[in-house]
Write a structure and sequence with these properties.
The protein is α+β, with helices and mostly antiparallel strands. It has 17 helices and 18 strands. The protein folds into three domains: 225 residues, Dipeptide-binding Protein, domain 1 (Alpha-Beta Complex), CATH 3.90.76.10; 40 residues, no CATH class; 220 residues, Roll (Dipeptide-binding Protein, domain 3). The strands form five sheets. A six-stranded mixed β-sheet has the order 12-16-11-15-13-14. Strands 1-10-9-8 form a four-stranded mixed β-sheet, with no helix packed on it. A four-stranded antiparallel β-sheet has the order 4-5-7-6, with helices on one face. The N terminus is likely disordered.
Length: 541
C-alpha cells in the first residue's frame, strides 16, 4: 500500500504518548548538595557495545549510556525515547518514527535517523556476530532481518529507511502491533557510525565511547568500576538530577552486602542480596530491602541434542523431582514464586494456566519422575550421569546443590557441578558446550512473546537447540491473531507443549530485589527490573 503524504502520516497520531522517563522530585523535597551515587552492577560487563551485548549487567549499564527510539516507564509501559512520536500504517506493517530535533550524541553531534539505520543494519549483519542478531527478525519482524542475519541478503536490504534526518521508516514482514515495545531493547539502541568506524572494536573504551543517553563514561577499571557523569548534550538533561554514578563490579552478593553495610554502596544490583543473610537483613534494615515482581524466570536449560537429554522423559523427570516450594521458601526466600511455566503471571495481558502435574503433591511428582526415568532406561544398573554448568555466584551454587540433593531421591544419579566466570560461561552456552546449564530469561519487552519466542526453532538464545514445529506454529499464529483473547489462547497452548517437552526446568519467577539506602529516591516497581540513573536523586540526609 502506498503511504499517504508524510505530513498526513505524522498528524495521524492515534493516541497521546506519555512523558519520557526522568527524575520527578516531589515539591518540598530537600535535595542533598552532592548528587552522586555508588551502584553495584553485579559483574564485569562482557561488552558495552549495544550490538554485541547479551546479559543483564550489560543492559543495566547501556540504558544509562544510550537511548533508543522508545523506552519504558516504571510500570513497564512504552514511553518516548529519541522518537517523540510514531504512527503505524498498513495494519501495523509500516511504522513512521519522528525523532527529536534536540537529540544529540555525547560529543554534541546530532542523533539522526541514519544512526538508527546504521545500528540496525550492523545488528543483523553476520560480520557483527551479535548474540541478538535474531531479535530484529524474530521479535520485531523487520523486513528481511532474518534473511540478512542468516547471510542470505546484504544488510542494505533491511526494511529500515531514513526518510530525512529526523524521520525513520520501519517496514515489517508481518503485522506487529507491539513493535514499539520491542524497540526498547538494548540491541535496538543507536550507535555512532563515525566513532565505530574510527576506532573499530575499541570504540567502547573510556575516552572513546560516544553515547546518546543521560550519562557518559569517564573512567573504566576492568573488574573494579565504571564511572559515569551527566551528559550535558542529552536532550532531557534539564530533568536529570544525579551528577555522577559510580558502578562497582561486585560478583558475590555477600561482597555487595558487606560494602553496602559499610556505606560503600548506595544501591545493590538487582539480585545482589545474599540469601543467607535475609533473616538478618529483615531484622536489622527491613526498610532497605526492596522486593517486587519481575518479568523473568530462572531455569536450567537442557541441551536437547546430546544424550541423555535428547529424551524428553529424562528432562521431565528431573523437572518433576524439583520441589519449587522448598526452593523459593528456603533456598532463595526473597520474593520469588514457584514456576511451572515460562511466562511470568505479571506479564501484560497474559493469563497463566495451571498444568495437571502442578495439582499433584511433590511425592506424587517424584513417583511420576521415577517411572519416566525407568522408561528411559535409567536405574540401578544404569545411573543417570551428567554435568551441570553454572556461572560463579553464591546463589547459583546453592540452587545447584539443592537440586542435586532433590535429584538423588530419584535413585542412582551422578552429577558433576561445574562453575565458570560470567564471560566464559556465556561463551560455553553460545557454543552449546554444555549438557545442563543454569539459565534465566528476563523479558526484553512486556508481552508474552518475549518469553515464549525463546524456545522457537533457530532463536539466537535457544542454546539447547530445542525444536518443535507445532510450538513454532502456535507462536506464529499468536502474533497474527486478530484479538488479544485469541493471542492468549495460542500462548497458553504453547506453554502446554513446553510443559510436556520440557526443554528447560523452570524453577521460579524472579522478584526484583535490591538493597537501597533511604536517601536514594525516584525508583519505582518496574516489572522489567530497570532502575535508570536518570530517574534517581539523593534526598538530604
Amino acid at each position: 500500500m502506498q503511504l499517504p503524504p508524510l505530513a498526513a502520516v505524522l498528524l495521524a497520531s492515534l493516541f497521546a504518548l506519555p512523558a519520557a522517563r526522568a527524575a520527578t522530585v516531589p515539591a518540598g523535597t530537600r535535595l542533598h548538595p552532592k548528587q552522586e551515587i555508588v551502584r553495584d552492577v553485579g559483574t564485569e560487563p562482557a561488552t558495552l557495545d549495544p550490538n554485541k551485548a547479551e546479559g543483564v549487567p550489560e543492559h543495566t549499564l547501556l540504558i544509562d549510556l544510550f537511548e533508543g527510539l522508545t523506552s519504558t516507564d516504571v510500570k513497564g509501559n512504552v514511553v518516548p525515547g529519541v522518537a517523540e512520536k510514531w504512527v503505524s500504517r498498513d495494519k501495523d506493517k509500516t511504522w513512521i518514527f519522528t525523532l527529536r530535533r534536540n537529540a544529540k550524541w555525547s560529543d554534541g553531534s546530532p542523533v539522526t535517523a541514519d544512526d538508527f539505520v546504521f545500528a540496525f543494519r550492523r545488528q543483523v549483519d553476520p560480520k557483527t556476530a551479535s548474540p541478538y542478531a535474531w531479535f530484529p527478525g524474530k521479535a520485531a519482524h523487520i523486513l528481511n532481518a532474518a534473511a540478512i542475519s542468516e547471510g542470505k541478503l546484504p544488510a542494505a536490504k533491511l526494511g529500515v529507511t531514513a526518510i530525512d534526518a529526523h524521520t525513520l521508516k520501519i517496514q515489517l514482514d508481518q503485522p506487529t502491533a507491539f513493535l514499539p515495545k520491542t524497540l526498547t531493547h538494548t540491541s535496538m539502541l543507536p550507535v555512532p557510525r563515525k566513532i565505530v568506524e574510527k576506532w573499530g572494536d575499541r570504540w567502547v573504551e573510556a575516552g572513546k565511547l560516544v553515547g546518546n543517553g543521560a550519562y557518559r563514561m569517564t573512567e573504566r577499571v576492568v573488574n573494579e568500576r565504571i564511572v559515569m557523569v551527566r551528559n550535558p548534550y542529552y536532550w532531557n538533561d534539564a530533568k536529570t538530577v544525579l551528577n555522577k554514578v559510580s558502578w562497582l563490579m561486585l560478583v558475590q552478593p555477600s561482597a555487595a552486602y558487606q560494602r553496602y553495610r559499610a556505606g560503600g554502596v548506595d544501591m545493590t544490583s538487582n539480585g545482589g542480596v545474599p540469601v543467607d543473610q535475609i533473616k538478618k537483613i529483615r531484622a536489622e534494615i527491613p526498610g532497605e530491602l526492596k522486593l517486587w515482581p519481575q518479568l523473568g524466570t530462572y531455569f536450567y536449560e537442557f541441551n536437547t541434542k546430546v544424550k541423555p537429554f535428547d529424551d524428553w522423559r529424562v528432562r521431565k523427570a528431573l523437572s518433576l523431582a524439583i520441589d519449587r516450594d522448598i526452593m523459593t521458601r528456603l533456598v532463595t526466600n526473597t520474593g520469588e514464586t514457584p514456576a511451572y511455566s515460562l511466562t511470568p503471571p505479571v506479564t501484560n495481558g497474559y493469563q497463566p494456566i495451571v498444568h495437571d502435574f502442578e495439582r499433584l503433591s511433590q511425592a506424587q511428582r517424584l513417583e511420576m519422575a521415577k517411572k519416566l526415568l525407568a522408561q528411559a532406561g535409567y536405574g540401578p544398573n544404569k545411573p543417570l550421569t551428567f554435568q551441570l554448568l553454572y556461572n560463579t555466584m553464591d546463589l547459583h551454587k546453592k540452587i545447584a546443590l539443592a537440586s542435586n540433593a532433590m535429584w538423588r531421591k530419584l535413585g542412582p544419579i551422578k552429577i558433576e557441578l561445574v562453575n565458570q566466570e560470567w564471560k566464559t560461561f556465556l561463551d560455553s552456552c553460545i557454543r552449546g558446550d554444555f549438557v545442563v546449564a543454569r539459565a534465566s530469561w528476563v523479558a526484553d519487552y512486556n508481552e508474552a512473546s518475549t518469553m515464549l519466542d525463546l524456545f522457537t526453532t533457530g532463536h539466537g538464545q535457544n542454546h539447547g537447540k530445542y525444536s518443535n514445529p507445532a510450538y513454532d506454529k502456535l507462536l506464529q499464529q499468536a502474533k497474527l491473531a486478530p484479538d488479544d483473547a485469541s493471542r492468549i489462547r495460542f500462548y497458553q497452548q504453547a506453554e502446554t507443549i513446553l510443559a510436556h517437552d520440557t526443554p528447560a526446568l523452570f524453577f521460579y519467577f524472579y522478584s526484583n530485589k535490591m538493597l537501597i539506602k533511604p536517601w536514594v529516591r525516584g525508583y519505582g516497581p518496574d516489572p522489567m527490573g530497570y532502575a535508570m540513573s536518570k530517574e534517581l536523586y539523593i534526598a538530604a540526609h
